[in-house]
Write a structure and sequence with these properties.
Length: about 375
């Protein structure tokens, strides 16, 4: 069945998943309205992001690989160290995106967001910032949406890409909510110390994990993972002190990194969560993608990759010439769930082993098995 040119899609949320699906649907000539709650489109928030080959493969499909490649830092190994910085093991990263892409690329999160924003703008989608969907009303033909700016719209499909605490998920009656895994992460962007050319992870010491990833020729992002504390009990003005206190115990490149942990406004503190919506990711003509449907601790650095893959698979199905019906949306879920479940469960397990202090846990084995499975196309 040929697509009628009048098909209209509403994308709620302009993060990686929402931006990616917008770009792909616009390429197929589908009319897309994107609404994003943040007036600045999240263009300035976040420290760094680790993108593995399977994420880079989707970014190449989106037509932004040249810009991503130019602004990021590619590498192909992962170091495991003791707290004092002694390197125990250097693992060759698995090229999940194929041999013609780097195994891993670190980049500054705001830069990735800006590249995707520019591609959405160039796609001809209608974008409204500082706007949310206040009500969605479905009938047999489509969805009527009422927006926070007082306007209304009529759509053939609504894609909820509004993240971990998705209002769309709640609005369509999916009761699942993210659950804390028991860990929290302190993150900061910092200058790249001489010689840091890959991610290194130190297990043990006062934190469960201390690590860093190069994000450009002259920047890195660094993080320490500890047990979660009541967020209300930590004054944001002390964020730099708290992160520095944990980071001070680590050797290697850490003393130089720690010198730059001075501005509490640049330190980000978040809990690790897990979420996996089971059964289906749609209700009628509203479908969830990305963190709205699943999220996991960043122990495998696969969160953005899973979100980008969702966008790719959903767009592929929506542009396949098939009817936009429950069967198509269910087939999207069934294609994604085994792969996403494997990533969520492995990411949670890696954190749980650290929480439980399991000394003989097969961390390299679990990482290798999971990453090898991601070489297959989504």
């Amino acid at each position: 069945m040929a697509h009628s040119p009048t098909r209209r899609v509403l994308v709620i949320g302009g993060g990686a998943a929402g931006n990616a699906v917008t770009i792909l649907l616009r390429r197929a000539g589908i009319t897309v309205d994107l609404v994003e709650a943040k007036p600045d489109w999240n263009a300035t928030t976040g420290s760094g992001i680790t993108l593995q080959g399977n994420a880079l493969r989707v970014l190449r499909e989106l037509g932004v690989w040249d810009r991503v490649s130019a602004s990021g830092f590619p590498f192909s190994t992962l170091g495991i160290t003791t707290p004092d910085g002694t390197v125990l093991h250097v693992a060759e990263d698995i090229r999940t995106g194929g041999d013609d892409l780097p195994a891993t690329l670190g980049m500054q999160r705001p830069q990735l967001q800006q590249i995707l924003i520019d591609a959405v703008r160039a796609s001809g989608a209608t974008v409204r910032l500082g706007t949310t969907a206040e009500a969605l009303k479905q009938d047999t033909d489509g969805v009527s949406a009422r927006f926070s700016d007082g306007t209304e719209g009529r759509y053939d499909l609504v894609i909820g890409a509004d993240g971990l605490n998705s209002a769309t998920r709640a609005a369509i009656g999916i009761a699942d909510k993210p659950e804390p895994t028991g860990m929290a992460i302190w993150r900061i962007a910092a200058p790249r110390p001489e010689g840091v050319e890959r991610s290194d992870l130190a297990y043990g010491g006062p934190a469960y994990i201390a690590g860093y990833t190069p994000t450009s020729e002259n920047t890195i992002y660094a993080f320490v993972v500890e047990g979660c504390r009541d967020r209300a009990s930590i004054d944001p003005a002390t964020y730099a002190d708290e992160m520095r206190r944990l980071a001070q115990a680590y050797g290697g490149a850490w003393p130089e990194i720690t010198r730059h942990i001075t501005d509490p406004g640049k330190v980000n503190y978040t809990w690790f969560d897990r979420l996996l919506v089971e059964g289906s990711w749609h209700r009628g003509r509203v479908v969830l993608i990305g963190d709205a449907a699943h999220c996991c601790p960043p122990t495998l650095a696969q969160g953005a990759a899973m979100s980008l893959e969702d966008a790719l698979v959903l767009a592929e199905l929506l542009t396949s010439g098939r009817d936009w019906d429950g069967e198509l949306l269910q087939s999207y879920y069934e294609r994604r769930i085994p792969r996403v479940r494997r990533v969520v469960e492995a990411s949670v397990q890696l954190g749980q082993w650290a929480l439980d202090g399991v000394r003989d846990a097969d961390v390299p084995g679990l990482i290798a098995r999971t990453m090898n499975s991601l070489k297959e196309l989504p």
